[in-house]
Amino acid sequence: MKKGHYLSGIFIAVFVTIHLLNHLISLAGVPEHIKLMETFRLLYRNIFIETILLGAILFQTISGLKLFRTKIKTVETPFERIQVWSGLYLAVFFFFHISAVMTGRYLLHLDTNFYFGAAGINTFPFNLFFVPYYGLAILSFFGHIAAAHNKRMKSDFLSLSPKGQAGAILGLGLLVTILIFSGMTDYFKGIRIPVAYGVLVGK
Questions:
Q1: Rounded Cα distance, 86 and 177, in Å
Q2: What is the pLDDT of residues 152-199, one digit of tens each?
Q3: Do 140 and 89 meet the contact criterion of CB atoms below 8 Å apart?
């Protein structure tokens, strides 16, 4: 199960990295974000890749919950705690996020593009939930990678110890989180959400 969790995690990490890169492009504007998204969708929205991705997420969630129950009893170091708790949050996040995307796509018949994610972030009081919801997901992703890196890395790199490297990954995660929220809110000025997506925030 551990090996399967690790291998499925690598596959998911590649997708999440692409997804986060797409969100970072929103710093250049919504049209640029959507244009890049449409290009990426040619890769991950075909039936073969999407089925593998959803299967990997399902396995990652189930195996992650089982590993959490085992590892939570033996954690000792701060990075071990980060690994198990970030893994738990990601398992919960993936379940609700994928469910929301599938509901938006197949029941609400919405294009789950930039505005699907930005609606809650740019609308009060929904942003009081969605900002920490998405923010913790990004930080948990980087935290999980940082903890795994700290565990597997045995030598210094660029004068940084494995623990220092893991800390740098966490710092990068914080920076990426701030930049993504900046792009998703037009540099914190707020973005007007199209009428069609008002259903997501009760409008």
A1: 15
A2: 887 877 778 889 999 999 999 999 999 999 999 999 999 999 999 999
A3: yes
* 153 to 5, 76, 149, 167, 202: CA distances (angstroms): 19, 18, 6, 13, 48
Amino acid sitting at position 191 = I
